[in-house]
């Protein structure tokens, strides 16, 4: 830790910053900060984040300093916070380092956190399918019981996310009603806020899929209005912006693009592994919105074969769209509800559009039924598929 602290002190001196002012900015006393810098006491993890962000503008340096602190720290609370912080911002390497520190800790509860957050890392890095992850989760529960409230809840949150990723939207609402009262009993503000907003994130999206648009938007705005001085809610706020953008897909082209672009702007400031992945999702969703409205097609950024096929449909090259979708069906075994809709559009096939609607309803996704219903309505009325205003 001495080398890390020396770099921090050098940076403070180089920038001609006053240590008293920095202490005030961190919300601690001058003597307490002096003890931190001398190594007599360990910096609180979140204060370290605030300090490093204040001293380093370059993201590579900032990320390096955060990870190096994590490697050197020894405080049991810091190790636990680092696990959830790495999870929250989507920094898989930081999470891995913190989990390893947890396993090496001589504190029983911290080891327990490491046991649970290793499962979080497995989920984030997609080492297992959703089904295999649930099986692994159940196996671990059989062979090792967890005692702290936080770790019990995080195991439930992993299950909650797996249900969401499996599109089991109908089950999510009951599960959240069981989880939220438990979360509110957590004493630590950082952990409680993150756990609660994780549940809100999923419920907002599940509500949207259930076509409860006002409820979804209300939850999203609650997330966006949550105070965060450390940036650990950025990725969850990104999710809220994405959900709001999707919610306006069929209402307002301008509103939809505004929220998605705000999300992309925030993602461009995040730089984590998860942020890079989410950025592609946002760009793809923005392209989808432009395509279904047949507007601003000059600079599409598409990362999914479905929207690539939709692009060819909009441009009048249905044969290429059909080829892409048939190849996808052969490779995956079946098409998703949305890709079935696209294939129905390309082939002008009423039965495929009806199958798409049934598929969406079957997975509890009333919201996106609107697209195949609209296409089918136009096809039945005019005998053609018109791509323009999505309303």
Automatic annotation (TrEMBL):
This is Prophage helix-turn-helix protein. NCBIfam families: lysogeny_AimR. InterPro entries: AimR-like.
């Amino acid at each position: 830790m001495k080398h890390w602290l020396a770099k921090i002190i050098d940076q403070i001196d180089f920038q001609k910053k006053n240590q008293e002012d920095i202490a005030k900015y961190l919300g601690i006393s001058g003597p307490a900060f002096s003890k931190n810098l001398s190594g007599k006491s360990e910096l609180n993890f979140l204060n370290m984040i605030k300090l490093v962000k204040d001293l380093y503008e370059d993201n590579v340096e900032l990320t390096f300093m955060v990870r190096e602190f994590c490697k050197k720290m020894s405080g049991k609370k810091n190790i636990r916070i680092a696990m959830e912080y790495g999870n929250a911002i989507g920094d898989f390497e930081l999470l891995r380092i913190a989990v390893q520190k947890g396993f090496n800790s001589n504190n029983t509860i911290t080891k327990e956190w490491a046991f649970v957050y290793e499962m979080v890392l497995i989920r984030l890095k997609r080492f297992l399918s959703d089904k295999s992850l649930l099986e692994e989760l159940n196996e671990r529960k059989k062979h090792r019981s967890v005692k702290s409230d936080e770790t019990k809840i995080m195991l439930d949150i992993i299950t909650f996310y797996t249900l969401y990723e499996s599109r089991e939207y109908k089950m999510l609402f009951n599960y959240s009603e069981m989880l939220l009262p438990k979360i509110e009993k957590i004493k630590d503000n950082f952990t409680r806020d993150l756990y609660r907003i994780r549940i809100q994130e999923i419920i907002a999206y599940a509500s949207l899929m259930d076509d409860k648009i006002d409820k979804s938007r209300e939850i999203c705005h609650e997330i966006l209005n949550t105070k965060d001085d450390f940036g650990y809610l950025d990725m969850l706020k990104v999710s809220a912006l994405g959900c709001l953008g999707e919610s306006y897909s069929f209402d307002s082209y301008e509103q939809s693009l505004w929220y998605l672009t705000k999300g992309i702007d925030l993602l461009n400031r995040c730089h984590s592994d998860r942020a890079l992945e989410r950025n592609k999702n946002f760009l793809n969703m923005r392209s989808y919105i432009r395509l279904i409205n047949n507007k601003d097609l000059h600079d599409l950024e598409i990362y999914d074969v479905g929207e690539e096929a939709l692009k060819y449909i909009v441009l009048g090259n249905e044969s290429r769209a059909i080829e892409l979708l048939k190849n996808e069906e052969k490779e995956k075994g079946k098409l998703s509800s949305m890709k079935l809709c696209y294939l129905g559009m390309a082939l002008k096939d009423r039965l495929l559009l009806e199958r798409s609607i049934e598929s969406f309803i079957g997975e509890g996704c009333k919201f996106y039924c609107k697209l195949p219903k609209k296409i089918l309505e136009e096809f039945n009325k005019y005998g053609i598929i018109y791509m323009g205003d999505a309303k």
